[in-house]
Amino acid sequence: MSIPQQVTKVHATGNDFVVYADPDGRFEPTADEVRRLTDRHFGIGGDGVIRLAHPHDVSDLSSAQMDKCRTGGAEWFMDYRNADGSLAQMCGNGTRAITLFAQSRGYADSGEGAEFRLGTRAGVKTLVALGDVDGLGRGVFRVEMGQFKRGELDAYEVSIPATIGSARGTFVDMGNPHVVAVLSDGTSNLPDVDALDLNTKPVVAPVLQSDQNVEFVRVDKVDASTGQGKATMRVHERGCGETLSCGTGLCATAVTLCAKTGVECWTISVRGGVLRVEVNEAVSTVRLTGSATLVGDITLL
């Protein structure tokens, strides 16, 4: 078995992961092992598996990616896999979960204001520990999510099998691909966000060869005078299905809402909690702030 005997369950606003440290580079998981661990009936259960490893111990990384980790000051790498065993370029909630785990094991500095540079397949991300934050919870981290690329607004049609209606969606690249459908702006005749059946995978047209995460969003409040907005989001993640939260999906949502409303700071509610997303439209960057929670250590038999 290429999984250590001791693993840990962590979640970040309900996006849950099986995580473990591999400082010696001996435990790179197979796709079958990931699927077994994340199975919610026969395994531990989770939206994915995260191995905390040094960049040179992650077999799929190119020399250019390892160089980025080195120049970006990232000693540790988030080796993330979706629940179906596939590799993932990026997971915003996963960065907070693995950083909290790294702090608990002494691989990262802890305490309010502590910084951690984390390598990912979408580049080096910098996290800052904020402690407890009113409205966001305990164990809160701010993540500099880096550059985004947004496509033409409403260029895609999004539908859900067995659900009447469709919506227009906007492509956003957050290091992984997203299509964001805003249901409250007059471009949709789908049911309200809370009434959607996301047990089935949404259909996006034109088809994206890479597949994509799909976010469904309702704008709840916009205050142009303060530059603040509130929204509600649900997400269907490729390789996982519906999850209670998706960090890159929250960022893609805020990027889309910013383009539609001009408001750059959003408080977004998902089924797993509340997070804050700040868009800097001028330089095409985005920042995500939310909590993470250690659930428990598990010994595999």
TrEMBL record:
It comes from the Bacteria. The keyword DNA repair does not apply. InterPro entries: DAP_epimerase_AS, DAP_epimerase_DapF. It is found in: Cytoplasm. The keyword Signal does not apply. The record marks H178, E237 as: Could be important to modulate the pK values of the two catalytic cysteine residues. Keywords: Amino-acid biosynthesis, Cytoplasm, Isomerase, Lysine biosynthesis. Its main location: cytoplasm. The active site is at C91 (proton donor), C91, C246 (proton acceptor). Pathway: Amino-acid biosynthesis; L-lysine biosynthesis via DAP pathway; DL-2,6-diaminopimelate from LL-2,6-diaminopimelate: step 1/1. Its EC number is 5.1.1.7. Substrate binds at N15, N82, G92, N93, N176, N213, E237, R238, G247, T248. It holds the Pfam family DAP_epimerase. It catalyses: (2S,6S)-2,6-diaminopimelate = meso-2,6-diaminopimelate. Belongs to the diaminopimelate epimerase family. Catalyzes the stereoinversion of LL-2,6-diaminopimelate (L,L-DAP) to meso-diaminopimelate (meso-DAP), a precursor of L-lysine and an essential component of the bacterial peptidoglycan. Homodimer. This is Diaminopimelate epimerase. It comes from Bifidobacterium panos. The lineage of its organism: Bacteria, Bacillati, Actinomycetota, Actinomycetes, Bifidobacteriales.
